[in-house]
Amino acid sequence: MPVNLSDRLRQVVAGANGHLMPAHGVELPPASPQRAPVKIDGRRVAGILAGDWLESADGAVLVVDRYYASDRRHGREPVGGIVETIENGSSALEILSNAWPARAGGSYSPRLCFFDVETTGLAGGAGTQAFLVGCAIVEDGGLRIRQFLLPGFEHERALLASVAEFTAAQGTLVSFNGRSFDAPLVETRYLLHRLTFPFADLPHLDMLHPARRLWKQRPLVAGPALDEDSCRLSVLERHLAGYHRIGDVPGFEIPSRYFRFVRDGVAHPLEAVLEHNRIDLVSLALVTARALRLIERGPRAATHPRECLGLGRVYERAGVLDSAEICYREAAALAGRIGREPDVQADALRRLALLRRRSRRMVEAAAAWEELVNTPGCPSILRREAREALAIHHEHRSRDLQMARSLVLDVLADQTARRRELAEHRLRRIERKIAIRELARPERGGLFAVFEEAAPA
Amino acid sequence: MSLPAVRSLERKEVALQGALERLAPGPWAAREDTPDGIITAVRRLPAVEARFAPFPDSIDPRLRAALERRGISQLYTHQAEAVAHIAAGRNIVVTTPTASGKTLCYNLPVIDAVLRDVSSRALYLFPTKALAQDQMAELHELVGELAEHSGEQIGVHTYDGDTPADARRTIRTRAHVVLSNPDMLHSGILPHHPRWAKLFENLRYVVIDELHAYRGVFGSHLCNVLRRLHRIAKHYRSDPQFICSSATIANPRELAERLAERPFELISQSGAPRGEKFFVFVNPPVVNRELGIRRSYLTETRRVAGEFLRRQLQVIVFAQSRLSTEILTTYLKEDFEDVPGMPELIRGYRGGYLPMRRREIERGLREGLVKGVVSTNALELGIDIGALDVAVLAGYPGTIAATWQRAGRAGRRSLRSAAVLVGSSAPIDQFVVRHPSYFFDASPEHALINPDNLHILVDHVKCAAFELPFSTRDEFGRVSVQEVLGVLQDAGLVHLAAAATTAADADADAAPGQWHWTSESYPADAVSLRSISSDNFVIVDQTNAARVIAETDFTSGPPTLHPKAIYMIEGRLFQVERLDFEGRKAYVKQVDCDYYTDAITHSRVAILDRFATDARGVANHGEVHVVSRVVGFKKIKFYTNENVGSGELDLPEQQMHTTAYWLEIPPDILAALPYATDDRRDGIFGLAFAMKQIATLLLMCAGHDVGLSINAGSSARGSEESFTDGDMPRIFIYDAYPGGIGFSEPLFSLQVALLERTRELIVGCPCENGCPSCVGPVGQTGPLAKTVALRILDHLTGHELHAVSSSPAAIASTAEEMPF
Q1: Measured between CA atoms, how close is B175 to chain A, in angstroms?
Q2: Architecture of the domain defined by B52-267
Q3: Residue B809: pLDDT above 50?
Q4: pTM: predicted TM-score of the whole model, two decimal places
Q5: Which of B516, B604, B609, B737 is most worth mutating to test chain A (most A CB atoms within 10 A of its CB)?
Q6: Tens of pLDDT along A370-384?
Q7: What is the maximal distance between C-alpha atoms in chain B?
Q8: What is the ipTM of this complex?
Q9: Which residue out of B238, B490, B653 would a mutagenesis test of the A interface target, given it has the greatest number of A Cβ atoms within 10 Å?
């Protein structure tokens, strides 16, 4: 029977419920002597990971610096091409900053700094560390990648200071899901050390949102069937540039590699983590470049109706309504020609109709709704919406009451439709109007007769 | 006061008098207790005059003006006392009764501090979300008043699981007063403390309301959560004062000091006025003397509540469960069916009702629109429902403290009120209604916690390490945290790194190392403050589509979720069809039946370490190893509690180390009894049954908090062998939580009272040969169980010289022996 504290503790810690399992089933981990903190040999680690060991009063940080020249390829795409698009993308960037305004205010300045953080967990909170901060910036037609690795928990202030110093010279942060994950997590680290959070004043463009508009659910032309909904960076890089990761370290393995490093000083498994981070950064630059190019060139650069539709949504969000309208029209037309994307076609027509209605072009809006009603394979919920919109149009604007009536009857014919009472109410009203119109004909005594007859009701 | 109001007050006085006369005729002034009657006691609690104190000069004039506009022009003495202690930098715990203006004791210093220094922050903790909401409404009125007249904007916000994500950011930085609960502090605030830096840097006060709710497992967890709070406050260089309020328990100051690990001042003398109050104990009449069956306490409650409702008095009825709440509501509505509009004015109230409906009922009670409410303990805590005329308690709430708290729901400051306790046939209820002086004259229970229970402590060390690294010099609780961290390191959860050598705090004797959290997990998610292990069973309803309807902690899984068990939730009954022990799932289907199930658990206890033995060598406490297994179950009919069937089960064993109190019955005492071995054994079982009931009464704990195990000697049933020393008969009352939550040591020190009270319970029971109210139902214990149990007790308590029969004279007054 365990009696001393250490054995009892071991029993409590062994498994979530060691105490409730049969006693013989409890495998106690062997007691190990109290270990002194592992001393990391900075020079050796710097050698293994090919970086620089920088020491300051706040501690040490390992800086890994790489330059990806313009002729280097990322899948089909040369780095130089990515960089060129980014450098010429200032007007597209302007559109993006109107669509997704920077929290700090102002627009995205062209000096982009791509950043991506590797962490010891996904939960957040004070105990989740950002142990690797990777940044990529444009330099001499290529990409300069600088990674800051935390060589031990005691050095965190040094890492935070280095990152702050580096990003201070940048114009805009670009991340993938960084607004909701990376940035708050890094902010927590600065807060914990009661240091100023350097990103607070930097505009932050989170590419996840435009990427979702443009490429979410895009079916892959080649390769094994992938999750259609997937909008992960590793999926995007594959279908935008045909880049395939080989020997990439899976995300779930990253924290344990780092823990092993701090615990035992084993550095070489971190090389794959650094590489993973670098690929993410280049792919992020690629995704950004592709989005900028699409926005720059407009719908004719789109390769797929869905992409074209997404581009329209980006324009619309940014308030560039004429371009948005062209995109929706093109997307609908393209989808109609292909004939296999009825949902894209319907969505594009719906957005087109709404856009026109918003700018009070009612007849044009009705034309889009009309087209939507006639789209084969159109989702029934959209068709119903279109019919209702058309019924309103014909009842109140074109005054074609018979048409309005027949549209409402179509809506009611769909047994599954919800909110039937609304349609029924409309039907009654339209029929009343038709009756009044009938009565108002001269041969029935003219308008006065109508009023006399209608008055008691 | 206007004339009609006076008339209505007079009318109420007359009505109350009339109802009481009808319930308990006769003079009440010097009425003797009559344990064998239906009305066992009527006590009069005299009215108390208000005692006022002037506003301390230190209070900000703007706050004072705001209070004066709200009709508060002077303070009660206890409020002034609270303000003075707080001003002197001390921590306080206030235990004045319900409706004595307790909340002002903390709102006053908190708002005053914010007015003086807008950066000041306060954190309020309530045991439930509903209480925080209720308190926020009250605080909003006060700060609204301040904003209107002096333009001071004081932010008061609740922060709990329901707080919308977009509001959280603002609350973290702007709220002066954050109203939350321990669970949210534990899993939502402390682990994210960097985002709460503003709060922690400026944390002046921590207010803990309903302190008495934090006992047992919950209290032991809260103590550790507060240890974490202290660490974080220290990191941000703040040192908050604690302001606690508690119901009347025996040890409020000790509880506060154990929870917060700080010295406290106790404020127990209320300056608030109180009207005269009558407290009546009712014991439903015996309908079957032989079996000890009494009339249903629900029927009796219905009768009593009806007397008051009929006289237009506003009544709150407290029921013991959600089911009985619904039953009583239905009964009372039926009784007033022929009074137009009256059934609608009688409402039920319990957890599970939608918040809107609950708010509507609360408002109806405050405004006098709702005439009667039947509630679970949901209305026991400080939700503002105003003061009613009468409280009727259907069944003893389990503790003296809770009884006073429920009774306190009736009673305006200047008016007469009444409280009626209707005892059920449960042993504790019977003991209390038959021994009114236990309730009226003894001090209430002690609230116990054991924050250094290793299972609980280790969980919080993990959470604390996640929040801030431990230095190699840190302490946490009374167990060596360095040793805990060493073990956690072996499990890969923490890592010892060198201390940061920062320019900021480069003091020469910085600790040599720091323990950092090295796991991807978020440890607070795995720790529930309401149970001791995070492992649990989920209950899957397969009536229609499979869906999870509830969960229960690991330990209570087998006894409540074994195959064929009836599982109850919100009055609906489910039968367990299959228990997937490994997968921790119970599959249930909704059924309609008239019984519930009660598991039969066999347990063996082995003594590991004996910490102490009493002078007579019979009572002990120490550490034990408990192996228990659910071997079968009984089907028990609702309302009559008849045993209507049983079944056998084959479930895995559960084991744990815990602490226990045990009684060793010297073989020579047993040998001296002129009974057969079987009857002696029955006597021991009967004694144990009764002792466990009394133990829960003395420990202020729930029935499932302690386990019972009996070693009545290993000799086979029916053999004539006498007990040898090796298998000394023992009755174990053990702490039902792994590691123990601190029940056994107090039970050991209370053991004189334990045996005396047990004896009183058995002696005073009018049944002939044992019943569920004393030594257990006759069908389960033997025919002589009651007699033998009493004889054993006589020997153990020294009554053997002069008492054998069950004459009431034998009930010695033992109050002076109570070691409270």
Answers
A1: 18
A2: 3-Layer(aba) Sandwich (3.40)
A3: no
A4: 0.82
A5: B516
A6: 999 888 888 888 888
A7: 88
A8: 0.83
A9: B490
